[in-house]
């Protein structure tokens, strides 16, 4: 039988896990640290106390995404291992210009993004639908669902989840989700965007549920977290209630102009809530 002292020593060695949101981990987009597509983001994230980095694949140069470069991929993998940081997702930013809803080349970009994400050992490729590429009506939503149905088998084979970030409400997200009907397709839920649209964010999280959400983005316009329009306590309550386990990546701004210090401040605020 183990002694009381031994049991207490073992307990002290265990990582601290929040009783409120035990499965939630925090990462950051590389661009938040002013290190877009730059592996140096990993060391900075570790200094701040984060666990993950979301990697931007980069706008095309000479027809290729920045992260198509095998040497740059290798540098990211090495940097993440050295820092003990998970490359928790990638972000295919070219979809701001090449719209998946109506551009065949965009589908090829996503195919390349799937390949890159696999090589980085990241689980999720975040796709985006904003600005001119935003989904404006039911016909466009159906076109996007058709594109994802075509791409999903390739993502499944690569072990990559296609994350769907957009400005739709939960009901319309569920409609696209049901039409794609693939384990490689999930909602990438941005609490800042949804607040801006006037949605009831905690209710939306509950409506979408644990199994349909792959990750979250946390932000609050130009404000520090907790000082703007997004109410984080009920959001974190909803995340806990659905039993979500995974990453929330910070997509926060830098009010002071010091992205490392500001990201640390935002992380500290979140830790007071969990």
Q: What do these coordinates show?
A:
The protein is an alpha/beta fold and 274 residues long. The protein has one domain (18-273): Divalent-metal-dependent TIM barrel enzymes (TIM Barrel, Alpha-Beta Barrel). It is 44% helix and 16% strand. The protein has 10 helices and 8 strands. The chain has helices at 4-13, 41-48, 70-83, 104-119, 138-158, 170-180, 191-196, 201-208, 232-242, 259-273; strands at 24-29, 52-56, 86-91, 124-128, 161-165, 185-190, 213-218, 246-250. The chain has an 8-stranded parallel beta barrel, surrounded by 6 helices. Helix 2 packs parallel to helix 3 (70-83) and helix 4 (104-119) runs parallel beside helix 5. The two termini are 34 Å apart.
What CATH architecture label applies? Alpha-Beta Barrel
For the biggest β-sheet, the strand order reads 1-2-3-4-5-6-7-8
Structural class: alpha/beta
Q: State the oligomer.
A: single chain
How many discrete domains?
1
Descriptive terms for the model:
about 270 residues; about 45% helix; disordered N terminus; alpha/beta; 10 helices; single chain; TIM Barrel; globular; 8 strands
List the helices and strands and how they pair.
Layout: H1 4-13, E1 24-29, H2 41-48, E2 52-56, H3 70-83, E3 86-91, H4 104-119, E4 124-128, H5 138-158, E5 161-165, H6 170-180, E6 185-190, H7 191-196, H8 201-208, E7 213-218, H9 232-242, E8 246-250, H10 259-273
Parallel strand pairs: 1-2, 1-8, 2-3, 3-4, 4-5, 5-6, 6-7, 7-8
């Amino acid at each position: 039988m183990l002694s009381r002292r031994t049991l207490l020593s073992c307990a002290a060695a265990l990582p601290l896990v929040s009783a409120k949101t035990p499965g939630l981990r925090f990462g950051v987009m590389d661009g938040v640290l002013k290190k877009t597509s730059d592996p140096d983001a990993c060391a900075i994230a570790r200094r701040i106390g984060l666990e993950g980095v979301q990697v931007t694949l980069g706008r095309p140069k000479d027809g290729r995404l920045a992260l198509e470069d095998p040497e740059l991929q290798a540098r990211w993998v090495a940097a993440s291992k050295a820092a003990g940081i998970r490359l928790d997702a990638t972000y295919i930013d070219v979809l701001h210009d090449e719209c998946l809803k109506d551009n065949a080349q965009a589908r090829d970009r996503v195919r390349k993004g799937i390949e890159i994400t696999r090589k980085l050992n990241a689980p999720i490729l975040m796709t985006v639908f904003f600005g001119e590429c935003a989904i404006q009506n039911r016909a466009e939503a159906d076109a996007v669902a058709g594109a994802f149905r075509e791409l999903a088998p390739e993502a499944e084979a690569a072990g990559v989840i296609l994350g769907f970030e957009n400005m739709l409400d939960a009901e319309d997200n569920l409609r696209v989700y049901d039409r794609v009907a693939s384990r490689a397709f999930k909602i990438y839920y941005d609490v800042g965007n949804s607040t801006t649209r006037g949605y009831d964010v905690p209710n939306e999280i509950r409506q979408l549920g644990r199994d349909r959400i792959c990750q979250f983005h946390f932000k609050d316009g130009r404000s520090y977290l907790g000082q703007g329009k997004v109410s984080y306590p009920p959001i974190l309550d909803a995340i806990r209630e659905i039993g979500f386990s995974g990453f929330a990546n910070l997509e926060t701004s830098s009010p002071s102009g010091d992205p490392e210090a500001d990201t640390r401040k935002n992380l500290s605020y979140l830790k007071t809530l969990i």
